[in-house]
Write a structure and sequence with these properties.
The structure is a single chain. Helix content is 36%, strand content 14%. The protein is an alpha+beta fold. The chain has two domains: 2-82, no CATH class; 88-241, Metal Binding Protein, Guanine Nucleotide Exchange Factor, Chain A (Beta Complex), CATH 2.170.150. The strands form two sheets. Strands 3-4-8-7-6-5 form a six-stranded antiparallel β-sheet. Strands 2-1-9-10 form a four-stranded antiparallel β-sheet, with no helix packed on it. Strand 1 (140-144) and strand 2 (150-153) form a beta hairpin. Helix 1 runs parallel beside helix 3 (35-45) and helix 2 runs antiparallel to helix 3. It is globular and about 70 Å long. It binds zinc ion (ZN).
Length: 267
């Protein structure tokens, strides 16, 4: 998605019509995107002196719409395609309206840690493997760091390998954004705490990929920012705040990135 945007910006700044035409052709054939976007990219890249004349001619031939309106479509398409958090972009529901627990933003900033505030109130995303709860395996309950509402049971937790705490299902305290099925499948739907409206992460329909986990039967993967959670162990031991960093461990390179192993004999 981001690549498409950067490509379009690149071509907008390009000064040759030739390259834009090539892009126009490849873009249409490979991406199957509507003609308005690719046509507009064509216009935007043409920086000849008689640009406006050319544009008018092309515009009248290709479309009844004016250049300005086409450009606005292109820019909005680019924004939609490149949005870093698409589920939020599509969701107009406020994080405060209609929720039982209400605080002003200033109060939230006081109640929550910086990480918690960024996730819960600003809809941010923590870096993968940055929460101690990703590796938590004890029995217990995962609660909202904003309002203490129970959100996930440890029995539904599984290791997805994504670096974020993952659950097969949520408890009743979890609210799932209502998005169209295509978006839900491709990009996921936002999940929030139903009590305080705090952003928790996203839910994806790819649970079936995780064989031998509870997600395989639910078909869902609730991908949660650990910082939004507090883990309450059922043995009564101390609560674990998800915005705590995991204990430092030796960084190991994945096999596919590691250099080939060379034995002394091979030299
Ligand atoms: Zn909450």
């Amino acid at each position: 998605m981001v690549n498409i945007k950067s490509l379009s910006l690149l071509f907008i700044s390009s000064s040759t019509l030739h390259s834009s035409l090539a892009f126009h052709a490849s873009f249409q054939s490979s991406q199957q995107v509507g003609t308005s976007l690719s046509t507009t990219l064509l216009y935007a890249t043409n920086s000849d002196k008689d640009q406006s004349k050319n544009n008018d001619r092309l515009a009248s031939r290709k479309s009844k719409m004016g250049r300005r309106s086409i450009l606005s479509i292109a820019s909005s398409s680019a924004i939609t395609l490149s949005s870093p958090n698409p589920s939020l972009a599509m969701n107009n529901k406020s994080r405060t309206e209609g929720y039982a627990v209400q605080h002003t933003e200033r109060e939230w900033a006081y109640i929550l840690s910086g990480k918690q505030y960024n996730i819960l109130r600003e809809g941010g995303t923590e870096r993968p493997n940055s929460s101690i709860l990703e590796s938590e395996e004890r029995d217990g309950e995962y609660r909202c760091a904003g309002c203490n509402t129970p959100l996930f049971a440890s029995s539904q937790k599984f290791h997805s390998g994504t670096g974020w705490p993952s659950f097969a299902t949520g408890l009743a305290g979890v609210e799932v954004e209502n998005v169209n099925p295509v978006q839900a499948n491709l990009l996921g739907a936002e999940i929030r705490c139903a009590t305080c409206g705090g952003h928790l992460g996203d839910v994806f329909n790819d649970g079936y990929l995780f064989v031998n986990t509870p997600a395989f039967s639910s078909g869902k993967r609730f991908c949660v920012d650990g910082s939004a959670l507090i883990f309450k162990p059922s043995d009564g031991s101390e609560e674990v705040f998800g915005d705590t960093a995991p204990p430092a461990k030796k960084q190991e390179m994945p096999d596919f990135l590691a250099p080939p192993k060379i034995n002394a004999r091979d030299r």
